[in-house]
Amino acid sequence: MINPVREYAWGSTHAFSELFGWPPSATPQAEIWMGTHSGAPSEVQLENRDATMPLREVLRSELPFLLKILAADKPLSIQAHPTQAAARAGFESENSAGIELTAAQRNYKDPHHKPELIVAITEFSALCGFRPYAEAAADLRALSDALQKDYPGLEVLLQHVESQNYDAALEWVLRSGAPEAGAVAAALGEAAADGVLTDVGLNAVLVDTLQRTTAAFPADPGVLVATLLNRIDLRPGEGLFLPAGNLHAYLSGVGVEVMAASDNVLRGGLTSKHIDVPELLAVVQPEVLPLPYCEPVSTQSGVLNYLPPVEEFQLTRIDFPAAGSAHTLSPQAAAVAICTAGTVHARAAEDTRTLTLAAGESVFIDSGEQITFSTDQEAQIFIAIAQGSPAREDA
C-alpha cells in the first residue's frame, strides 16, 4: 500500500525516522493514513509494481475503518467526537449552509461517528475523560495556593467542580469565562517555567501536564480543561478506547490508532485549528466515567486482540518470535496489516510470490484471503479488520 503522511504542527520530525528508518523530516509528520477516507485515501501497488490503483477501486466500496500511525511531539487539541446521529445531523446542516468540505471552519467532514482505539507503540501520554471531582478540586486548590496572586477565575472553576458540575465548568472555561481562564493559564505557564509548581509539592504528573500544555499553548483556556481530565500514561501494547463524547487530548508518543472511517472532530482548545465550543459542548459527556482502558484478549502466545464495542473494527497485534516464526490467518472481511518493527514476509495461499514488509509498510488483505506472515527475526505487525467478521486463525 502507498499511504499518505499528514503533516500537522503537533507531529514529529524524528519519530517515523527512528521507528521505521525513514529519512529525517524537515517538517512535523503526524499521521500515516491507511484507508479509503476521501481526506487522504491510500493506493495499492499492483503486481508489477509499476502502477497503482486507489484502494477504494480495488475494494469497489469503502473500508468501514481508518487505520493510522500517530506520532505526537506536542499536545493535540482538546476534542471529542460525535455520535452517529449527531454526525449525520451536523453533516447535513453544514451541507445545507453551503460550507465547503475543505473549509477550515467545517466541523463535519462526513456523516459518520468516530469511535477510536489507540494502542501505544512507544510510551504514550494522553488526557481522557473527567477526573473524580474530589481529585480535581484538591489539585485546583493546590494550584491556587501556588500562584503568587489571587485569580477569581480559578475560584469560579473550583466552585463548579466542588458542585460536581463539569458541564458548567467546561462551559465557563471555554466560553463565558474564557478570558479569565486564559489569564489563569498564562500564570500557570509562568509558574511551571519558573519551577514554582514543583517547589510547592504538587502532583508530579499534573505538573508535567501543565508544563507540556502551557509550553505549547501559553494562555490557552484549554490548559485549565487539562487539569480536569485523567492523565493516562500507556506502556507499549496498552490501549484506550474512546467512544463518542469522551473529552480527550493526546500529549506525546507514537501509537497505532484505528477508528470508524471518519474525520469528524469537535475542538475546544490547545490547537490552531478550527474551534467550535458550542458544538463541542453539545457532544461531550460531562460526567466522571471509568478509565477507558481496552484490555487485549490473548488467543495464543504472541497474539493479542483488541475488541472495542463497535462494529467497524477490531485490532490484532502479532509479536514474533513469541507467535512462532509464522502465523496464518483468514480475515472474513477486508483488512489492513502494517509492520511496526522488524521485517515480515506476507504470502497469500496458493501464491508463489512473497511480499516483504519493512517497518512502516502495509499490505491490504482482501476478504476471505488466507495469508501467512513469517519472519526469522523479532518483528511486530498490527492488523485492523471489521469487528463483525473476525479473522480465523490457522496457526
Structural overview:
With 395 residues, the chain is of the alpha+beta class. 27% of the residues lie in helices and 31% in strands. The chain is built from eleven helices and 23 strands. Strands 1, 2, 5, 7, 8, 9, 10 and 11 form an eight-stranded antiparallel beta sheet that branches. Strand 3 (43-45) and strand 4 form a beta hairpin. It is globular. It starts with a strand and ends with a strand.
What helical percentage do the residues reach?
A: 25-40%
How many alpha or pi helices?
11
**Alpha-carbon Rg, integer:** 22 Å
Average pLDDT: 93
Structural class: alpha+beta
Q: Any idea what the shape is?
A: globular
Q: What proportion of the residues form beta strands (DSSP E)?
A: 25-35%
Low-confidence stretches: none
The total strand number stands at 23
Largest sheet: 8 strands, antiparallel
Termini separation (Å)? 25 Å
List keywords for this structure.
395 residues; alpha+beta; 6-stranded antiparallel β-sheet; 11 helices; 27% helix; globular; PMI_typeI_cat; RmlC_Cupin_sf
